[in-house]
Amino acid sequence: MAGNSFGTLYKVTTFGESHGEALGGIIDGCPPGIQLDFEAIEVDMARRKPGQSAIVTQRKEPDSVQFLSGIFEGKTTGTPIGFIIPNTNQKSDDYSHIKDNYRPSHADYVYDQKYGLRDYRGGGRSSARETATRVVAGAIAKQMLPEIKINAYVSSVGPIHLDTPYQELDFSKIESNPVRCPDEKSAAIMEEYIRDIRKQGDTVGGVVTCVIQNVPVGLGEPVFDKLHAELGKAMLSINAVKGFEYGSGFSGSEMKGSEHNDLYNPDGTTKTNLSGGIQGGISNGMDIYFRVAFKPVATIMQTQDSLDNKGNITPMTGKGRHDPCVVPRAVPIVEAMAAIVLADFYLINKTY
Q1: Among 213, 231, 207, 190, residue whose Cα is nearest residue 153
Q2: Is 276 within 8 Å of 264 (Cβ atoms)?
Q3: Phi-psi region of 313 (alpha: psi -120 to 50; beta: other; left: phi over 0)
Q4: What is the distance between the terminal CA atoms of the chain, rounded to a whole angstrom?
Q5: Residue 65 half-sphere exposure, CB side, CA atoms within 13 Å?
Q6: Chain CA centroid to CA 319, Å
Q7: Is a pLDDT exceeding 70 seen at residue 93?
Q8: Max CA pair span of the chain
Q9: Which helix (H) or strand (E) covers residue 349, if one does?
């Protein structure tokens, strides 16, 4: 299997399966001398880990990170940072009923067709549990760029939308509720909706909005390695993501140029920011903001038709521990992938 690495100079390679002994990764290219805040890494891991609230999967994993290399006396050495995250709460028997069946909208069928075999326990390598490794790499990337502030939050769950402009939100409230929505009223409605969806044995999707502030001018490499293109690739590589838009996004296609153009101030900032902080693929110093759409989790606790490996259509009911809505746990993953992209471009910028 190819495609297990991301980045050019700040390069992250991940390994492991959902029900294997451990997940892990190697971070190559991290500069030496960074005093790591291990507690901050643990905080980000706790934000993503399963079992953290009643509206997420109840799989209990401590998600403690064991660093194996690249760190000495709390500082990065400049050599590859190797780490593992042990799996401690697998229940592989929960998946015995799909050993010969392909679940609708999962990767089961395509993995079997492509590789000739598959790890049916929790989806193996296709499981969103792999994203735990990205959070480690992203947490370290954040510490490479302490001036840059990255805040993601849930802006919609199913039909419930938070339409308040991000400039009017208090990001300190993101972690005040299990949905990770900074508007308390909207968060309460979203949480109740997720609980109701779970009772129905169903799932629901949503949107995570991310805002990146204090970005220096000049990050991004045209023509093919535009900053927004790499952010898009990073976000679309996350499990269950179905869409990415930055700045004005699709709504910009309905505007006139006279409405959409960001006019300059004398200091180079712009009066508006419909460009989303990126022009010509390069950061312009304004806030970068984007939205990431997540589909409903494919495993539902209802009976649906599935396909078995003999070509028969057979009924199947989901079992095991699954998120009724993935977006609350996706917030730190979105932040992590954004941090990895920025760290990579930061290092590339220093080469000339």
Answers
A1: 207
A2: no
A3: beta
A4: 34
A5: 28
A6: 24
A7: no
A8: 68
A9: helix 327-349
Q: Measure Cα distances from 169 to 17, 173, 182, 184, 271 in Å.
A: 37, 9, 7, 11, 20
Please tell me the distance from the alpha carbon of residue 72 to that of residue 304, in angstroms, as a whole number: 52
| C-alpha distances out from residue 54 to 177, 256, 289, Å | 11, 46, 30
346 confidence band (pLDDT: 50, 70, 90): very high
CA distance linking residue 138 with residue 327, whole number of Å: 18
- What pLDDT does 142 receive? 98
The torsion angle over the Cα atoms of residues 116, 117, 122 and 124, rounded to 10 degrees, is -80
Specify the pLDDT at position 95.
64
Q: Which structure tokens are listed for 215? A: 């970005």
Q: 56: which 2 tokens?
A: 């997420």
HEC per residue, 222-250 = CCCECHHHHHHHHHHCCCCEEEEEECCHH
Average pLDDT, the chain: 94
277 pLDDT band (50/70/90 cuts)? very high
The residue among 161, 132, 128 whose CA lies nearest residue 47 is 132
Judge residue 170's burial from the number of C-beta atoms within 10 Å of its C-beta, 0-12 exposed, 13-18 middle, 19 or more buried.
exposed
Tokens standing for 168? 């009017």
